[in-house]
Amino acid sequence: MSIKDLSKDELELYSHKDLTNMLLAEKGAMNTVDLFREITTLLELPNSVFENKIADYYTTLTTDKRFIMLEDGKWDLRDNHTSDKMVTVADSDDEEEVEEEESEIKDESSLDDENEEDYDSARNDEDFDDSTDEDLKDLVIIDEDELELEE
Question: How wide is the angle at C-alpha 63 spanned by C-alphas 61 and 68, nearest 5°?
Answer without folding.
Answer: 55
